[in-house]
Amino acid sequence: MATTMATTMIRIEGLCASCGGRSVLDDVHFRLERGEFAYLRGRSGSGKSTLLKLLYRELSEFEGAIEVAGRRLRDIPRHELRRMIGVVFQSFELLEGKTVYENIAMAGDVRGMPRGRIREEAMKLLGRVSLDGRANDYPAQLSGGEQQRVAIVRALLGKPELLLADEPTGNLDSETAAEVLGLLRELQREQGMAMLVVTHSQELIDRYPATVWEMAEGKVRRR
Amino acid sequence: MNLLLYYAREARIGIRRNAGASVASAALIFAALLLTGLLLLLRGGLAGVSDYLHSQLELKVYVERGVDAEQAAAILADKSYVASAVVQTGEQLLGQLESFFAGKPYLLEAFRDDALPDAVVLVLKESEQIALVAQELSQTEGIEQVVYPQQLAEQLVYWSGLLQSAGLAVLAFLLALAFMIVFLAIRLALYQRSKEIRLKLLLGARAGHVRGQFMLEGALVGLAGGTASAVLLLAAGLAVSRRLTAAYGAIVQLDAAALAVLAVCLALAGPIVGAAAAYAAVRRRIGDA
């Protein structure tokens, strides 16, 4: 058990969840090790996003067992859980009225990180995703791919142990999508964090192969 | 400390974004608290006047026409509770009124047509007896009317009570209105910034901290209104106090220290009202999960 706690990032056993009276997840068993990169693939409405929302506690009604970093999900205070997890969304979720830097800094500010450290980490990460020099731009001045890179930097600020990406390339053309996924893969390796990417693109999976969990009719199976 | 500074910055930005609603909220809090301060000052002033009137020992007894005022004064002077009894004739009273109605002779003519009655001015030994003495004298044959300062004090207390009740109703209305405006301003801000709030929570902000940011916004708006009312009340109170003390020092005295305490209370009440309204607006909207 001690070994499990040390090496497993996410452990799900017998997870059931419903949405509006309809069963969305049915007896789901899932495992993601620390430092592992994996895909969660499935059709629209198959329950992928519900599973992710349960993991970062956007949804909280479920039956079964979910453990994150060896702790029962329900025992982890919501804010603490979200500081362990970085989340990247399909729609980027950047604030239009804030600059690139301000959008990124928000992740450090809400955790009480010193301003100097926030600036240092943000600039380093912006350089890493080739956006140095764009810190004072507004999201509307960036392309879709650039906006998603900003969202990735925001998710990585504070060095999360786990990164969840909910269709991060869904709003991008195929070339930019491959570029963004390649970047995610590199950052995952560099930072040694666990990463679960929700996608329905077989092309991207073929390009960056990793463990694939297939989701269909509320059930998950490892492919 | 970093968190406090961050949320203080965010609260300032929030107020700037909702400038119109913030100014309206601050103005209403200002009006409500200023009215509170004025009512308290007025109450203090009237209490001073009332105390002064209650301490007066003098009463005036008007005798019926045909009754000899000098004889009445002699009889009254023999009473055990009377310190002195002096006659004031109708002509003497008219003479006093001439100076009072200076420049308005037509008003004085009304008194000339119907000659004023003679009166006996009594000074009692103790002020507590004045109402009983007045009642006894007014039932005595040959006495038309008894007038004494405590009657005015009773009237003052009566009108002061009415004014206070009406003032309290207006005050309650203004405070409720200020509370509602702050509440609605914060609700509007919650709606406008729902994406930002959701993101902050997703990035690991504590719900209490995000609620605190909005309560800080409400408190800052309240502080602006409260401070403005405190400054105005202090300035006006000191100015009026100087004049009153110079003219009626023995009757009305506004204590500068009490005025300062009242101003501080008003300045503190503003943020409390603002923060309470903001808390009511956010407590169910930004929940702990």
Automatic annotation (TrEMBL), chain A:
<feature type="domain" description="ABC transporter">
    <location>
        <begin position="10"/>
        <end position="223"/>
    </location>
</feature>
<dbReference type="InterPro" id="IPR017911">
    <property type="entry name" value="MacB-like_ATP-bd"/>
</dbReference>
<dbReference type="InterPro" id="IPR050086">
    <property type="entry name" value="MetN_ABC_transporter-like"/>
</dbReference>
<keyword id="KW-0547">Nucleotide-binding</keyword>
<dbReference type="GO" id="GO:0005886">
    <property type="term" value="C:plasma membrane"/>
</dbReference>
<dbReference type="GO" id="GO:0016887">
    <property type="term" value="F:ATP hydrolysis activity"/>
</dbReference>
<comment type="similarity">
    <text>Belongs to the ABC transporter superfamily.</text>
</comment>
<keyword id="KW-0472">Membrane</keyword>
<dbReference type="InterPro" id="IPR027417">
    <property type="entry name" value="P-loop_NTPase"/>
</dbReference>
<protein>
    <submittedName>
        <fullName>ABC transporter ATP-binding protein</fullName>
    </submittedName>
</protein>
<dbReference type="InterPro" id="IPR003593">
    <property type="entry name" value="AAA+_ATPase"/>
</dbReference>
<keyword id="KW-0067">ATP-binding</keyword>
<dbReference type="InterPro" id="IPR003439">
    <property type="entry name" value="ABC_transporter-like_ATP-bd"/>
</dbReference>
<dbReference type="GO" id="GO:0005524">
    <property type="term" value="F:ATP binding"/>
</dbReference>
<keyword id="KW-1003">Cell membrane</keyword>
<keyword id="KW-0813">Transport</keyword>
<dbReference type="InterPro" id="IPR017871">
    <property type="entry name" value="ABC_transporter-like_CS"/>
</dbReference>
<dbReference type="Pfam" id="PF00005">
    <property type="entry name" value="ABC_tran"/>
</dbReference>
Automatic annotation (TrEMBL), chain B:
<feature type="transmembrane region" description="Helical">
    <location>
        <begin position="214"/>
        <end position="236"/>
    </location>
</feature>
<comment type="function">
    <text>Part of the ABC transporter FtsEX involved in asymmetric cellular division facilitating the initiation of sporulation.</text>
</comment>
<feature type="transmembrane region" description="Helical">
    <location>
        <begin position="256"/>
        <end position="282"/>
    </location>
</feature>
<dbReference type="InterPro" id="IPR040690">
    <property type="entry name" value="FtsX_ECD"/>
</dbReference>
<feature type="domain" description="FtsX extracellular">
    <location>
        <begin position="58"/>
        <end position="146"/>
    </location>
</feature>
<feature type="transmembrane region" description="Helical">
    <location>
        <begin position="166"/>
        <end position="190"/>
    </location>
</feature>
<dbReference type="InterPro" id="IPR004513">
    <property type="entry name" value="FtsX"/>
</dbReference>
<dbReference type="Pfam" id="PF02687">
    <property type="entry name" value="FtsX"/>
</dbReference>
<keyword id="KW-0812">Transmembrane</keyword>
<dbReference type="Pfam" id="PF18075">
    <property type="entry name" value="FtsX_ECD"/>
</dbReference>
<dbReference type="InterPro" id="IPR003838">
    <property type="entry name" value="ABC3_permease_C"/>
</dbReference>
<feature type="transmembrane region" description="Helical">
    <location>
        <begin position="21"/>
        <end position="42"/>
    </location>
</feature>
<feature type="domain" description="ABC3 transporter permease C-terminal">
    <location>
        <begin position="169"/>
        <end position="283"/>
    </location>
</feature>
<protein>
    <recommendedName>
        <fullName>Cell division protein FtsX</fullName>
    </recommendedName>
</protein>
<keyword id="KW-0132">Cell division</keyword>
<keyword id="KW-1003">Cell membrane</keyword>
<keyword id="KW-1133">Transmembrane helix</keyword>
<keyword id="KW-0131">Cell cycle</keyword>
<dbReference type="GO" id="GO:0051301">
    <property type="term" value="P:cell division"/>
</dbReference>
<comment type="similarity">
    <text>Belongs to the ABC-4 integral membrane protein family. FtsX subfamily.</text>
</comment>
<keyword id="KW-0472">Membrane</keyword>
<dbReference type="GO" id="GO:0005886">
    <property type="term" value="C:plasma membrane"/>
</dbReference>
